[in-house]
Amino acid sequence: MERLVVVRPKHPFGPNTCISSPFSILPSSLSEFNGTRLSSSIQNRRKAWQQKGALQVTASSAKKILIMGGTRFIGVFLSRLLVKEGHQVTLFTRGKAPITQQLPGESDQEYSSFSSKILHLKGDRKDFEFVKSSLSAQGFDVVYDINGREAVEVEPIIDALPKLEQYIYCSSAGVYLKSDLLPHFETDAVDPKSRHKGKLETESLLESRGVNWTSIRPVYIYGPLNYNPVEEWFFHRLKAGRPIPVPNSGVQITQLGHVKDLAKAFVKVLANEKAIKQIYNISGSKYVTFDGLARACAKAAGFPEPEIIHFNPKEFDFGKKKAFPFRDQHFFASIEKATSELGWSPEFDLISGLADSYNLDFGRGTYRKEPDFSTDDMILNENLVLQS
Asked: What element of type H or E holds 200?
């Protein structure tokens, strides 16, 4: 049997309390994560709109929203924005992690207000029969699918919610076919053999089922609570005073987008007529080289400029370990479509975004993975031999 529960602020990590009463609506004028005022596309007064054809979304001031996932990274920040906008938010998770957690810099009052409004539906999304029965029983206006990887995981959700207004999907810029012509645009060729092919198949499924869908394709995401070793990889080495090993020339160009900017983009597409059946690249406004990223991490965190060691990955056998957290190629995408159509733009530049990540996470002594310098030592030892 499904359980719909609300997390009480007095016991955020304790037993959940079942509820049956509706939410009170949270005013949308609360402060943003970093203390600045939230600028959102969702206004209190909205009008119903209809696309030419069968799709229709009623852009009411409050929606019943389901987030698939939501307790690790992107959803932590997205759910806060949605609650502040007055929406009723339910997280669908397996319940293995606390449903809410107080963020660094978040006041007790802000956290209490947020956590008291979050509902939880406990289950495994791969249990398709449970998904269909529980979601059809609850009913939702909008689904944010943050952790979906395969199309087969999405079908039960669509089946369970025939009156769904919008399906907003977190895809990846990793679906694009490698090209000599950059940046990637949303109309570029995709790679059906990429490790993100499940994302592509999901987008195709949503289109074939006639759902009002929107897909967001982030490049590399960074920020507080990041569980991928993006900025954390550099911070570990900077803190230990170690050189930074960078593959090949170090002038490979890549792109990072802050998780809070990504969360705002997800809100911008909600009930947005322009976003019907559209794909948007979301990331930072500037690109950066690998060497430049190492220096940016040092500057943002207050470390001296690092020593950078270049190496040829083909000369080493690292086994299953990764010697560098980024794909060894140019990889960046245009965000022009999102900025022009959605009125969205990233608030964080790279230095301020890395500083936000460091000050609210790694700099407080919290990180996801312990440092592993074994591949670094292989590279550094080989480098010393060559120099001698």
From this structure: helix 197-208
